[in-house]
UniProtKB/TrEMBL annotation:
GO function term, MF aspect, one: RNA-DNA hybrid ribonuclease activity
Origin: domain of life: Bacteria
Example GO biological process: DNA replication, removal of RNA primer
Catalyzed reactions: Endonucleolytic cleavage to 5'-phosphomonoester
InterPro entries xref list: Ribosomal_bL9/RNase_H1_N, RNase_H, RNase_H1_N, RNase_H1_N_sf, RNaseH-like_sf, RNaseH_domain, RNaseH_sf, RNaseHI
Native organism: Lactobacillus amylovorus (strain GRL 1112)
Descriptive protein name: Ribonuclease H
Annotated function: Endonuclease that specifically degrades the RNA of RNA-DNA hybrids.
Cofactor(s) essential for the protein: Mg(2+)
PANTHER family from the UniProt entry: RIBONUCLEASE H1
Length: 254
């Protein structure tokens, strides 16, 4: 079975059939993509985990499912987050935290590029991964016609609910996101401002209000949490895991 790696396209990543890969490159200026027989060669081409992926995935793995399982079982220790280079604060070792949570949301729709609009039939999905010493939990889901921002919010909402279910919410936690929109809403206190204005932005209407309200409610139960940013598709093992998981959900369940 061929695997298609999209290095430059609407949504870079690994796709298990040409129809899905074609959606990412068809009409995309400067698109770069290639087909492979196994996941390892595809990851080599994309440049993911350049120094560590051979320790995670061996050459016998020839399916996306096997690769994801390898990543999950070898991710026993939380991964250090990749911080924005403009941030003066030193990177925090994630081993200082009781648990590290990675979240991601994604879409395969016509609204992810300039001039595009989300259609009701477009796929969208979210995923999270929670890692702590001796265990891990993950989850994923999806819906049609949702925006990327909504899926980023939904990923974090579901991760927070799982952490509460596990009884971890009052522990020292690290959250790693690649969505600056969601991250800034929390770290720069946009949520409080929107709430004071009746869930409106100073410049106009606020989108995805139900999701913001739910995040605001859940975050009240997390008194000792840190939220950090990592660049997507930039060799962060936890971020790559949730990216694979949400794409797998769209491939297999939608």
């Amino acid at each position: 079975m061929k695997i298609y790696a999209v290095k430059k396209g609407r949504v870079p990543g690994v796709y298990r059939n040409w129809d899905e890969a074609k959606k990412q490159v068809d009409g995309f200026s400067g698109a770069e993509y290639k087909s492979f027989e196994n996941i390892t060669d595809a990851i080599d081409y994309l440049g993911w985990q350049e120094k560590s992926h051979e320790e995670t995935i061996n050459r016998k793995d020839d399916t996306l499912e096997n690769a994801i399982e390898k990543i999950k079982h070898n991710s026993k220790k939380p991964v250090k987050a990749t911080k924005n280079k403009k941030t003066k604060k030193q990177n925090t070792q994630s081993s200082e935290y009781f648990a590290t949570t990675y979240t991601d949301g994604g879409t395969r729709n016509t609204g992810v590029y300039k001039g595009g609009h989300v259609k009701k039939t477009d796929k969208a999905a979210w995923a999270y991964l929670i890692e702590w010493d001796g265990g891990s939990e993950d989850g994923s889901g999806g819906e049609y016609g949702a925006t990327n921002n909504k899926m980023e919010q939904t990923a974090l909402i579901n991760a927070l609910k799982k952490l509460i279910e596990l009884g971890f919410n009052e522990k020292h936690l690290l959250f790693v996101l690649d969505s600056k929109y969601v991250l800034n809403a929390i770290n720069q206190h946009w949520l409080q401002g929107w709430k004071k204005r009746g869930w409106k932005r100073s410049s106009g209407p606020l989108k995805n209000v139900p999701e913001w309200k739910e995040l605001d409610r859940l975050l009240q139960s997390f008194p000792d949490s840190t939220f950090e940013w990592t660049k997507g598709h930039a060799n962060n093992r936890g971020n790559e895991y949730v990216d694979h998981a949400l794409n797998r959900y769209m491939d297999e369940h939608m």
